[in-house]
Every structure is written in structure tokens, then in C-alpha cells.
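Lecture 7 notes: from sequence to structure.

We start with a single chain of 169 residues. Read the sequence below before looking at the structure.
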Amino acid sequence: MKKEKFNRLLAKCRSPETFRAAYTELYDFFFHRIVLHISYKYKNPYIGEDIAQSFFVKLMQLNITYKIDNPLSWVLTSCDNLAKDYFECDSRNRIMPPQNATDSHSIDPLQKAIFGEYEEKLNRLDPVTREIITMKIFSGYDLKEIADELQITHSSARQKYSRGLKMLK
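Now the structure, written as C-alpha cells:
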């Protein structure tokens, strides 16, 4: 979508008379793109729809008066931020399974089975590889951030991540 049309639709979203048509056009154009982008990025087909819906709810609540130069980039970056908030609760705290998943009543049985299976496989990995995979998958860090935090090279982090994933399969 061209930036002129996108900004015109955003402006129409501010008017009650034209809101519905403009919002529907934005929704129809961006919804599936968001779902595909987020689902691919986070390797989870279900999270994409949740994030797309959250984005459009927030878009409805926003009163954007400035012009967006690159609409697709703005939308996908906004959705990436929503996904990070979803996974990280705004604070880079890792979302991890409970220490003893079998004793937890707050986690459903499917999650217990998934966490139990992968926890066993994760424990077989060396500590650095386990930390890289945990940071990437559960916390949404990118490999450059992981390399900086663990004080290793980017190529080393990428290699350990790739080999670790192969060992988890």
C-alpha cells in the first residue's frame, strides 16, 4: 500500500462517518501479512492471529496525526513490538516453564508435556547452547543481542543455535 493511501485511510479512521470503511480496508490489506510475518518469525502459527488482532485493536484506539513514511514497515515493526511484549511482558524477563512442571497447577497438561519433552532435550545441550536457544526462542532476542550478552561472536552464536536446534529435533 502506498504511503499516501495509507495516511489517507488513517485520517479517515479519525472520523466516525468514514471510520468503518477505512478501518476495513486497512484490516483487509494488512491482517494476513501480519499473521504470516509473525507466525514465520516466531515459528508459531497461532501467535500471528493474536498479534494481528491486538494490533488492530490498538490501531482503533490510537489517534495518529503524523504521517507514516513506510506503512508496511511501520505496521510490521509495531506488530513485532506487540509480539515482544506478548512474550516478554515488557521486561526481557524470560518466559520459562516452571522449575518443576509436574508440580505446577497453573500450566495446562499440553504445556506440561511440551515443556517436559523439551526440557529433557535442552538439559542434554551444553550450557552456552542451551542459553542461546532459551534466549532466542523464549525471550525473542536476536542472535546479535545474544552474542553481545554472552560475549561471543555473532557467527559462534548463530552456529551454536543452528546445531542446538538440530539436536532438539
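The first helix runs from residue 3 to 13. Keep this in mind for problem set 3.
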